[in-house]
Amino acid sequence: MTSDNTLDLDVVIVGAGISGIAAAVALGQNCPDKSYAVLEARASIGGTWDLFRYPGIRSDSDMYTLGYSFRPWLRPEAIAAGGAIREYLVDTAAEFGVDKHIRFSSRLTEASWNSELNRWTLVVDSPVGEDVIRCRHLFLGSGYYSYRGGFEPTIDGEDTFDGPMLHAQNWPDDLDHRGKRVAVIGSGATAITLVPNLARDAANVTMVQRSPTYIHIETGDDPEADELRRTVGPEETFRRIRLRNLRNQQEVYAQAKGDPDAFKATLFDAIDAQIGEDVRKQHFTPTYEPWNQRICVVPDSDLFHAVRDGRADVVTGSIDRITPTGLTMADGTRVEADIIVKATGLDVVLGGEAEFDVDGWPVEIGREWTYKGAAISGVPNLVYAFGFINASWTLRIEALTDYWCRVLIHMDDIGAEKMVADLTDGEQPALPFISGVDSGYLRRAEGLLPRQGDAAPWINPQNYADTLDLFASVDDGVLTFS
Q1: In terms of Cα–Cα distance, which of 292, 310, 203, 282 is closest to 256?
Q2: How far apart, in whole angstroms, are the C-alpha atoms of residue 433 and residue 376?
Q3: Which domain holds residue 369?
Q4: Phi, psi torsion values for 290, nearest 5 degrees
Q5: Does this UniProt record's set of keywords contain Oxidoreductase (predicted)?
Q6: Which of 25, 139, 289, 419 is the most buried (most CB within 10 A)?
Q7: How far apart are CA 51 and CA 452, in angstroms?
């Protein structure tokens, strides 16, 4: 069933999570005369922070940089629980009037650009059937992974397991782990968050990892921020700590790349102090260099306290098979479990799994190039949100939305209806969308994300200063307006 009336708007924003709300606020502040709607496939605001409900879900970036610059994070915790972040996003949307523009339970399925009309035609699955929306500009704030389910590698013997087996992305409300033996498969941010939280009530929790991940121990609260709140107030504190953390993130990344041995020593010394050098060498010493994959944060050493106290343990190696009572490793080690949780990562997508075409020609995103890490070669009037890998997501999103609004204003000033960046095959080498990071989910997505070249503007920098430089110019001679 298709609705009778076609809605005609200036802008459609896809997604009501961190990126979509940031885009809507920026649009409302900089281009207040533009009509817009936010399409949210789910029934509530929050994106990642509404979807993930596993025990202990929390930020892996400090809230002074993950929070918005235009709405200070005023709570004392620097690393925040998922529920608190979701509440922050809901309140932000309400404060800036974004919530009035959200169309819930509305999933974008098709987006077609028509060069005669200079318009996008969107097909949207909604509670009343198929809606059709036309718009001049499309902003994809739907994140970079599938909400339908996580990455689930098949393990021999899965069908023989006697207990519940689930992926952390699809955590059921009624799962009772109290007094049970739980095996968590994975070593990334989800696993190291789940293990100490499950260990509070479970009989035992075992983290089963193929290989270790770099882990940085941080304090859950920020003592300097606590002191500043008493002297200059919460809003000024947010501004100062945000700037401090922004600089620190860039400096730490530069140190990790420039002197990896010194950087590793800092991480390892902190872990050794909690569980000893022998355990650290066996289970928490990766074989790759720092920041070849994202570094995970453990606030207040909670994971290592659980290991040290015997409430959790770690098994490192390849899994041979699942058994009725747990799993068996390739070296013969048995892990007994009543519940198995796969914390095995995400399935990467761009654009919320919608199909895109330009004048009837399908857009194969993985065969195109990224323009400034913000647009796709040959695709008019479309911007997508993709944050930093090595720093807080929101830092890049706010730089992007500021740039996007300046582009929209420029188009109005010169009377342009269309913007597009074109690149001919062979002009740039085809490099991965994210350089220098070898995480599994990015390797699996190389054919799905746009490629980058080796020269601006066909690049996707992961440095904040370089990103600001790239976004400084609106009319750079490559992005064409007509």
Answers
A1: 292
A2: 11
A3: 7-148+347-481
A4: -55, 140
A5: yes
A6: 139
A7: 30
